[in-house]
Amino acid sequence: MTDRKPGDSGTDRLFAHEQPHSDFRFDASVARVFPDMIRRSVPGYTTIIPMIEVITEQYVQPGSHCYDLGCSLGASTLAMRHGIHYNDVTLTGIDNSADMLERCEHYVALDDHSLPVTLRCEDIIESRFENASVTTLNFTLQFVAPEQRQGLLTRIAEATRPGGVLILSEKIRFESEQEQDTQTRLHHEFKRANGYSDLEISQKRAAIERVLLPETLQQHRERLLNAGFDQVILWYQCFNFVSLLAIKSTRNSQ
Q1: Which residues fall in the annotated binding site?
Q2: What is the arrangement of strands in the sheet containing 65-69, beginning at the earlier edge strand?
């Protein structure tokens, strides 16, 4: 995702100077630099996005719906789009940030693909899902209040066809304090290697720590199974960032 709208600065410098503390928000300033921010902040992001296309191609079913929940600028939406080869599949991206969706519309329009994409500005907690074969929560669930996560995943599982999947990517925390410290240190070194200063790392962490609430891998596995998925596979991990594949068994249709 390299094309920019007029006025985009491109490079993330949002936390380069000392500023009063405020919680992180997906506003217009973040939307302008988001591709650069997430590439330099999330280890493995540039691997996960193309693999979403591969997974979508394997699990999408004719006559079904596909959803990208918390679609932001549409990177995973477009990956799903290119993995869908049925004309009767609908693809919907949902996000509660109008600023992000405005730019998402731009990227969707630039993308060379004929499958229509519907974008909805709404809270995914209140969204309705049905007849789904592939759903993506790509670094989205971590911003949902913990007490609302089980209900959301249960509704997704109930709406998923037998043989369908949920792709869940998340930042996680570790039960071992020693491992947590090591993984956090490596993540910060990843950011430094991508040009972020100690001040940027510190201020971004302070801004996001009350809105991004990570959980352990085991908590995610248990919640997905309790929601109604039959198999949960860890298909990717880089430091404290993971992506899971939750599969709805075809046995449920027999």
Answers
A1: 45, 70-72, 95-96, 123-124, 138, 205
A2: 117-121, 90-95, 65-69, 132-138, 160-171, 241-247, 231-238
